[in-house]
Design goal:
Elements (H helix, E strand, L loop, with lengths): L5 H4 L2 H12 L4 H8 L3 H10 L1 H27 L1 E13 L4 E14 L3 H11 L1 H4 L23 H11 L1
Antiparallel strand pairs: 1-2
Helix pairs in contact: 2-5, 3-4, 4-5, 5-6
């Protein structure tokens, strides 16, 4: 496929390749490099050609959902099976082959960091670090003008604080 010619990337083959690169997690900069164009040119193509934009969006959507599901699974914890394989000599075929020697069910505990990340992003109203607190009522000025007081009066006030 000729590099840098937008018409080639509007073909079924070109759109499939763009979709695959996006699904594989490549950034727009990496995709532009693969095409042989600058990132700004790719941005222009995405604005001008809906098919190119859609192919990239659909590819990225797939991998984004996979990452979201993996994050959720990590936050909640999960079970998995660990399989151990060892080489054993097969006398009949006169060769070594891998044989399953052990299967163990294991549990991955929920990950609090993943939980915090999930909650801060999905429920920022309840889980962000900074909470907005509104105060209703009147606010009074606590500043007192003491410029008219004499030095002696100021000393008396200072002794009251001790």
């Amino acid at each position: 496929m000729a590099k840098g010619k937008y018409k080639n990337w509007l073909t079924e083959e070109g759109l499939t390749l763009l979709n695959g690169w996006a699904r594989d997690g490549l950034t727009d900069e990496q995709i532009a490099h693969n095409i042989g164009i600058s990132r700004s040119t790719l941005s222009e193509w995405k604005k001008k050609y809906k098919d190119i934009s859609d192919a990239l969006k659909k590819g990225k959507e797939v991998v984004d959902l996979e990452v979201e599901n993996a994050l959720l699974q990590r936050a909640l914890g999960y079970e998995y099976e660990e399989v151990t394989r060892e080489q054993q000599w097969n006398e009949k075929d006169k060769k070594y082959e891998l044989v399953v020697t052990k299967r163990v069910k294991k549990k991955q505990a929920p990950d609090t960091t993943a939980q915090i990340f999930w909650l801060k992003n999905r429920r920022p109203d309840r889980w962000r670090d900074k909470q907005n607190v509104e105060h209703s009522g009147t606010v009074t000025n606590q500043n007192v003008d003491m410029s008219a007081l004499s030095v002696e009066e100021l000393r008396k006030l200072a002794k009251l604080d001790e």
